[in-house]
Structure formats: C-alpha cells, structure tokens
Amino acid sequence: MSDVDRIRIYHHCPRCGSTSTEVRTSQLVVCHTCDLRLYYNPCAATAAILLDAHDRVLTVRRAKEPAKGMLAFPGGFVDDGESAEEGVRREVSEETGLKIGALEFLLSRPNTYPYRGIVYRTLDFFFVARVNDFGEARPLDGVAEIVTTPIDGLRLEDLAFVSMKAAWATFLERRRG
Ligand SMILES: [Zn+2]
To answer: Fewer CB atoms inside 10 A, N or C side of the chain?
Structure first.
C-alpha cells in the first residue's frame, strides 16, 4: 500500500458525506464540497527497553497482529492528553504488570503499523529503564509470553518493527562505547 493509497480507503468526506474528496498529500484529504482539511499525521507511540540488575533485557512476544509471534519492547500508542513518559509507563504496566522508575530517553524513529486494512504511520519514542526484578512480570494485554534474555542474546531479527531494531542497534552501540 503506497503512502497515498493508505488514505484513499476513505471514499466519502467524514463531515458532509460528499464523494468529491481529493487525496492531496500522503497525510491530507481535502473535501471540495465543504472545504474540510483532514490531516493524518503520525501517531505517537512509545516503548521501553527494560533492564534488570543482571543486565538482562525484557521483551514481550506479541499475541496479535501486526507482527504476531515476534518479540517487542513493551509499549504502545500514546493516549490523548498523555506525555510519552506517561504513555510508556501505562503501557508497560498494562502489558507486564511492572512499575518502572526513572526513564532515560534513547531516540525516536518513524514506523508503520498495519492494522485492519489501515497502515498507520507512527513516531515511536524509545526509553531505557531499570527494573528490580523481572520475576514480577506477567503476560497481560496483547502479550503471549514474557521473554527475558541476556543483553547479548537478543537478536535484531527477532524484533518486531524497523523502529525497534534501530533502537536496539543504537542501544548496543552506545553500550559498547
Ligand atoms: Zn465535506
């Protein structure tokens, strides 16, 4: 699905119902009847690289599409009104039950998230956080399994999204110094 095709799935203006709509850019639909300008800017999303005191890293095996069965750092879409930090704390709690302390911002990367026929464009914010004990983590919302591995044992090809692979590669580079 091309950038333009992904918003051509809307056949009518969502305000007036007119079919006289134009996909003007990859993120803008214009209605020529009521003059609506509807923007599809990237959605903000977050994820946390969680480390314990023994330099193990926690990932979740995704229970649902997209990327079902792949490993991911816990996270998800930021809700309306939330900061990225609030969003990642909430998502980590919802997916694993873990409460996390201080967050260190790592980087942001664009990503695509195909879901039920729409390819969402996201901007993913990655954080690093320490957790005292992974033993308290449980597979909750959208999680098939909690997976903990030594830092050197988590392979890029097992991670779900291009943004996530970039975050992990950067984390490893910085760690090596
Ligand atoms: Zn309209």
So the answer is: C
